[in-house]
């Protein structure tokens, strides 16, 4: 177990190092992420003055859009405010207004167990804001053969951890298709029975895909970003074909409340 934990820590720090290098070299990437974070900020419960926590903050860039956001991760880094595990948060009951997960949900092996913990720490009316890969025709290509993490489509999602399971003993997991399966499909809707679905927004984000992200080659010059955003707006009209990103906003509510309709 200790060897596996050390290997995960080493892998995490190597990825952080690579991402920081890309962040410094690619102003286009910084501008795109700022827009993503601003889109999340627009859905915060009580706005920018709320007590917001990001889980899995990575290189910690969210504070450019949400200055007061508490940045957390599984492992410490100089810019991380707190070390936190999504299944076992150290925050008191009903003490947080917003929990933000940016490319974190698909790493949750037991999403139902995590959602129960989120519900515990959120105030009434508090929100979980989830930004994830989205499966469309283009999304399947981008996150399937062109990405190093598995889509997980051939595996059943295990909503809840088995009896006796410990969050401290969990290990690396990734299934990039999980958000689309949970939030856009019917099979896993019971997981959302205690939540009000405020938003399910699918976006093409081709400007991001073609930027190369943190690890791939940038396919267009920085000055072409306005043109690429125009392409995004057109492709947003056909999410089944072009959506590569999904923003889901869940609000803590009574179990009897029903979710919102799917929005493109």
Based on the model shown, name its key terms.
264 residues, alpha/beta, Rossmann fold, seven-stranded mixed beta sheet, 8 helices, 7 strands, 17% strand, globular
How is this structure best described in words?
The chain has 264 residues and is of the alpha/beta class. The protein has one domain: Vaccinia Virus protein VP39 (Rossmann fold). It contains eight helices and seven strands; from the N terminus they run H-H-E-E-E-E-H-E-H-H-E-H-H-H-E. Strands 3-2-1-4-5-7-6 form a seven-stranded mixed β-sheet. The radius of gyration is 18 Å and the shape is globular. The N and C termini lie far apart (43 Å). The model is unreliable at 256-264 (pLDDT under 50).
Summarize the structure in short:
The protein has 264 residues and is α/β, with parallel strands linked by helices.
Instruction: Specify Rg, calculated over alpha carbons.
Output: 18 Å
Shape: globular
- Going by CATH, the architecture would be 3-Layer(aba) Sandwich
The chain-level mean pLDDT equals 93
Order of helices and strands: HHEEEEHEHHEHHHE
User: In total, how many beta strands?
Assistant: 7
Q: Could you give me the name of the CATH homologous superfamily?
A: Vaccinia Virus protein VP39
Portion of residues in helices? 25-40%
Q: Could you please say which CATH topology applies here?
A: Rossmann fold
Number of helices: 8
Which structural class best describes the helix and strand composition?
A: alpha/beta
For the report, how would you describe the main beta sheet? 7 strands, mixed
**Percent of residues in beta strands?**
15-25%
CATH top level is Alpha Beta
């Amino acid at each position: 177990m200790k060897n596996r934990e050390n290997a995960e820590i080493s892998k995490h720090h190597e990825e952080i190092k690579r991402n920081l290098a890309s962040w410094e070299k690619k102003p286009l990437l910084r501008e795109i992420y700022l827009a993503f974070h601003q889109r999340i900020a627009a859905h915060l419960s009580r706005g920018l003055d709320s007590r917001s926590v990001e889980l899995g903050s990575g290189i910690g860039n969210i504070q450019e859009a949400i200055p007061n956001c508490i940045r957390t991760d599984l492992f410490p880094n100089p810019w991380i405010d707190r070390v936190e595990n999504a299944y076992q948060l150290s925050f008191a009951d009903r003490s947080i207004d917003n929990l933000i997960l940016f490319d974190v949900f698909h790493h949750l092996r037991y999403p139902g167990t995590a959602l129960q913990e989120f519900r515990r720490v959120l105030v009434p009316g508090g929100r979980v804001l989830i930004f994830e890969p989205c499966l469309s025709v283009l999304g399947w290509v981008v996150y399937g053969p062109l990405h190093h993490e598995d889509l997980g489509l051939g595996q059943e999602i295990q909503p809840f951890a088995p009896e006796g399971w410990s969050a401290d003993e969990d290990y690396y997991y990734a299934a990039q298709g999980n958000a689309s399966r949970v939030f856009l499909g019917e099979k896993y809707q019971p997981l959302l029975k205690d939540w009000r679905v405020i938003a399910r927004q699918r976006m093409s984000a081709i400007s991001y895909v073609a930027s190369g992200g943190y690890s791939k080659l940038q396919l267009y010059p920085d000055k072409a970003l306005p043109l690429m955003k125009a392409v995004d707006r057109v492709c947003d009209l056909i999410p089944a074909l072009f959506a590569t990103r999904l923003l889901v906003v869940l609000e803590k509510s009574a179990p009897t409340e029903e979710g919102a309709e799917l929005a493109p």
